[in-house]
Amino acid sequence: MDQTERITIPGAAEGIPALLWGPASDRWIIAVHGNFSHKADRVIALLARRAAEKGYRTLSFDLPQHGERAGGALPPDPPSCVSDLGAVYEYVRPRAERVALFGCSMGAYFGLLAYHGLPLSQSLFLSPVVNMERIIRDMMAAAGVSEERLRAERLIPVEGGPPLDWDYLDYVRTHPVRFAWESPTSILYGENDALCVWPEIAAFSRRYGAEVRVLPGGEHFFHTPGQLSAFDDWVAGALRE
């Protein structure tokens, strides 16, 4: 989409680089990217194009240590990300009569943490993380790190991935996705998602009445032409006028 505007949203410790996609509107979508991604991710660009067709303006932004914020002051931990999402919502709310949410992977998890209880018109989740504790435990098992060792050492580097962080584990353990979530929610999930397992997605769907579309052969990371085309079609059908 050609019509984009770069802005900076005031944050607690540093400005939050953001993009506005599409023409002015009183309907907005807050788009939260996944891990190792950024505010101009391909799926966000596809979302913004479809959203503009239905009269929405999309706001996307870089989470701490992602995109333009690589090397910044804030760590990419849940408290920092939740705080950023709060700042983004405070920016959008006075400008919008209707606010929707898009979250990809861990971006969906941070959106759930930050926005439960807020009046979202709807939520669209791609490959959503709904049980971060289980993912961290799997990482610990793969690295051969016990909970006792992590508690003692606090931070343990892992080859080929982010470090294991005791404070991160403690936070997600005390903030499970078990709260009220009233936003009408649609999920696109890849059949072969190796990170977010189907029983957790199914349990989330039952708990919150979320609609789930399963893409045969799909993965956690939607990146092939076929997967991106399926995502584009899903957004077109799931996003309400």
Keywords:
about 240 residues; alpha/beta; two-stranded antiparallel ribbon; about 35% helix; globular
What do you see in this structure?
Helix content is 37%, strand content 22%. Helix 3 (106-115) links the parallel strand 5 and strand 6. The protein is built from 8 helices and 10 strands. The chain is globular and about 50 Å long. It has helices at residues 42-53, 78-92, 106-115, 132-143, 147-153, 166-174, 198-208, 225-238, and strands at 4-9, 16-21, 27-32, 57-61, 98-104, 123-126, 155-158, 161-165, 185-190, 211-215. The model has no long low-confidence stretch (mean pLDDT 96).
What is the number of helical segments per DSSP (H or I, 4+ residues)?
A: 8
Helix content: 25-40%
Structural class, by secondary structure, is alpha/beta
Strand count, sense and barrel status of the largest sheet are: 8 strands, mixed
For the largest sheet, list the strands in their spatial order: 1-2-4-3-5-6-9-10
Q: Secondary-structure element order, as H and E?
A: EEEHEHEHEHHEEHEHEH
Give Rg in angstroms.
17 Å
Please tell me what the overall shape is: globular
Low-confidence stretches: none
pLDDT averaged over residues: 96
Number of strands: 10
How far apart are the first and last residues' alpha carbons, in Å?
20 Å
Query: Which band does the percent of strand residues land in?
Result: 15-25%
